[in-house]
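I hope you will forgive my troubling you with a question about protein structure. The full record is reproduced below for your convenience:

——
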Amino acid sequence: MNVARQLLENKSLYKLLLLVLLRLLLGLSGCTAYNANPTSPFLGRFKVNRGPHDDYFMDISRGAGDAKVRIYNFVDFFKLYLPATVSRNSLIIPKQVFKNQHGTDVMIEGQGIIASDTLRITYEVTGVDKSSFTVVGLRVTSNNKLNVEPLQARKR
């Protein structure tokens, strides 16, 4: 009690203590949560609706690298892992070439953005002709340990 009274009587010490406390409080309020893994917002299973009663699931899991992910069942066509890179809330699918069931080269590339639990990917496919599409997926689970194995691509 005596120390508190002395502190209140000594105005310069009181002001210094208030300044230190205020600085400490302002410093703590400026802290934000740091997500060490940039892929976290993208991981999970996304339900994509193509039309009435026509849904499919697309799974995204961690890839080999800090900002790498693997997309399985992309557009319900690519039954293999499609590698992509993430940065903040953006996803990049680099240009990749696959053989379709007729042996024709099919090139795909695209980019996406995630907001809350909605993933929107715009991509371009070039093969016989060139087409652009957008898919929108709604996250149904954020399980980042999905047990999904890709189908093996056929080699001709």
